[in-house]
Amino acid sequence: MAAAPSSVVLASSNAGKLREFSELFAGRGFTLARQSDFGIEPPPETGSTFLENALIKARNAARISGLPAIADDSGIEVDALGGAPGVHSARFAGEGASDEANLDKLLSALEGVDPLRRGARYRCVIVYVASAGDESPLIGEGCWEGSIIAGRRGTGGFGYDPSFVPAGDTRTVAEIPAQEKNLKSHRAQALGEFLARFSRGR
Ligand code: IMP
User: Which of 11, 46, 79, 181 is the most exposed place for a label (fewest CB within 10 A)?
Assistant: First the structure.
């Protein structure tokens, strides 16, 4: 593996994500910097897959900062809606929509749909590029299968969690303790795969 860089840009301005990623990468010989520290604005997410969008964000941050970059992208796919909202999960009910409005729209779209036809999954992709033109990015992917109930239950989590029940469970993710979610989720799975590859040096 090439010598570890001393600094890597996280292509997100979310303080929570920076803290989470910083903890995970602790002791690996480099520090993580937020893209806003370099004055980098998030680029338009014009990709049609989570991987494309994560790469758009990572390459943009690497190009402007001149440093390696890490980015993630995630969302939910609903079978009865042909995979929507997918990459549009954060803005399903419109640009800047709240989690509540997005979930309202999803539940309305599924009104009257048979419980057996409400399959869905959360997906997450995490990528690392050594430079903007890196042709072999390091990728970690996670997928959490489940279904969408009619209505909401629970107060934990965020986004679509009050209506998403993981396969093999009866609780919504909003009823699952955060520690348990963090072991099982699409994000946990993507990070696990990513860190294993990162440690191996690709
Ligand atoms: P982003 O990856 O931060 O852009 O998140 C995309 C969107 O997907 C979020 O705004 C949520 O609507 C949805 N999402 C991603 N992960 C989760 C999750 O763990 N629970 C609920 N919603 C999620």
Answer: 46
